[in-house]
Recover the amino acids of this structure.
């Protein structure tokens, strides 16, 4: 999906160039590397319905594979003298690392409020989609305002994408990963954060106890999911997702109607409507 953002952004802001292909390749290499590393950090044994690399070959090889993919992307940009692209992607990788560290720090005490949640999302999921869109624009124009606009567009779509991913964790569809995996990994997503902010003290203690001490108990997890539904946490997260979707689409209004723009709008809607 991220390379598609690169190509569509290039076409919306100008035309696809050789730099667009390099940017698309770099973005996908970094994204894949981040997934490999995430599975190590999260001790996840499954990725997209298959065994993760660390599940098959253990953590040492998984870390090296992730590093190899990242270095391949950096060398690709350097060999083609795409220094502007290298700068964009280096900032994205830095942001990804900072977001992961912030999430790990806060996960210990489960003290993530809504503002911290969005900071983590911007630094992780949204950072790479933002980089894809800004790189796609940078491949075809030197106009800083256009590049910044597309970076902002990518950030908003990235946040909406993550909110959708959070919501899927509470659904019944086959999403290629175990159900309630975020709860089992003690990740504080927006539906739970909203619920904690809008429930009584007893319920709050019950939720925190479940996440901290009973994340492997199916009965407690099912109870927690029901509490989140009943509290309006799912509805609130869905509303926030729609807000970011609308804000992103509004940023495209400044560009003339083209086939690429129409396709980008379809992609944005797909991000929101997807089932996995």
């Amino acid at each position: 999906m991220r390379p598609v953002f690169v190509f569509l952004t290039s076409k919306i802001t100008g035309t696809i160039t050789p730099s667009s292909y390099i940017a698309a390749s770099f973005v996908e290499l970094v994204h894949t590397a981040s997934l490999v590393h995430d599975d190590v950090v999260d001790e996840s044994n499954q990725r997209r319905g298959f065994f993760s690399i660390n599940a098959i070959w253990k953590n040492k090889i998984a870390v090296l594979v992730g590093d190899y993919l990242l270095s391949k992307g950096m060398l690709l940009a350097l060999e083609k003298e795409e220094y502007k692209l290298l700068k964009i992607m280096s900032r994205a990788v830095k942001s990804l690392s900072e977001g992961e560290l912030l999430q790990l720090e806060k996960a210990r005490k489960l003290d993530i409020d809504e503002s911290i949640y969005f900071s983590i999302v911007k630094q992780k999921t949204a950072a790479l989609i933002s980089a894809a869109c800004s790189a796609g624009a940078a491949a075809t124009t030197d106009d800083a305002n256009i590049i910044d606009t597309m970076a902002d567009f990518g950030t908003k779509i990235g946040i909406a994408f993550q909110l959708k991913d959070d919501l899927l964790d509470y659904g019944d569809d086959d999403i290629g990963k175990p159900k309630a995996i975020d709860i089992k990994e003690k990740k504080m997503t927006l539906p739970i954060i909203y619920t904690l902010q809008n429930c009584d003290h007893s319920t709050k203690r019950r939720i925190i106890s479940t996440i901290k001490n009973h994340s492997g108990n199916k009965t407690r997890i099912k109870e927690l999911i029901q509490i989140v539904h009943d509290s309006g946490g799912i509805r609130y997260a869905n509303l926030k997702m729609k807000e970011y979707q609308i804000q992103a689409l509004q940023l495209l209004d400044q560009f003339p109607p083209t086939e690429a723009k129409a396709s980008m709008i379809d992609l944005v809607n797909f991000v929101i409507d997807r089932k996995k």
Summary: The domain at 2-273 is CATH 1.10.600.10 (Farnesyl Diphosphate Synthase).
